[in-house]
Write a structure and sequence with these properties.
- There is one protein chain.
- This protein has one domain: 4-Layer Sandwich (Deoxyribonuclease I, Chain A), CATH 3.60.10.
- The protein has 3 helices and 10 strands; from the N terminus they run E-E-H-E-E-E-E-H-E-E-E-E-H.
- About 20% of the residues lie in helices and about 30% in strands.
- This is Endonuclease exonuclease phosphatase domain containing protein.
Length: about 180
């Protein structure tokens, strides 16, 4: 006696599929192991004599269908090279390719907080390594000339929480900066 089970891939947000019956840009199907996508020696160096456009955005959530596509379109429209994202609201940590863009992210166990960094194609080629510290902090190291660059995306505590945890928060930021050599 056999049973046929048909499984559809759905986004865990609201069970929504895209038009091709693929999962929409939720996150579970895109999770990868946290490791550099290439050996650091093969990363291309960013030339620091060129200007890079960097911005940050509190996106409020990427945990809804279409939000990630909007962020990618806005990044292209504004011709940004690096975009820091706060309140991503994804769980876990990982990286994904979005066409020519690369996103690294770090979240907690629940769909609260979360940070990410979105790189354009040229800048992503120089991504040497990255490390998810917490659901409020992710660090990326870019291979550059004459010195490597450290990008730290932080979703800071609110004033009330900061007064309660300010020493712990300050120590965490100081440890990250000292490991980056800044």
């Amino acid at each position: 006696m056999s049973q046929n089970h048909t499984e559809t891939l759905v986004n865990k947000v609201k069970g929504v599929c895209d038009s091709n019956s693929n999962p929409s840009f939720g996150r579970d199907s895109h999770v990868q192991q946290v490791a550099p996508s290439r050996h650091p020696a093969s990363a291309r160096k960013i030339k620091t004599d060129k200007t890079s456009k960097i911005a940050t955005w509190n996106v409020r959530t990427l945990h809804q269908k279409g939000k990630l596509e909007n962020v990618v379109k806005d990044m292209a429209r504004m011709k940004l090279n690096i975009q820091g994202l706060a309140e991503v609201r994804w769980t876990g940590a990982g990286s994904m390719k979005l066409g020519s863009k690369t996103l690294i992210y770090s979240g907690g166990y629940t769909h609260e907080r979360g940070v990410g960094i979105l790189f354009d194609f040229t800048t992503a080629k120089s991504l040497g390594s990255w490390c998810p510290i917490s659901d409020r902090l992710v660090v990326a190291k870019l291979v550059a000339k004459p010195l490597n660059l450290g990008i730290i995306q932080v979703y800071a505590l609110t004033y009330i929480r900061l007064t309660e945890n300010r020493y712990e928060w300050r120590n965490m930021i100081a440890n990250v900066c000292s490991r980056q050599g800044t």
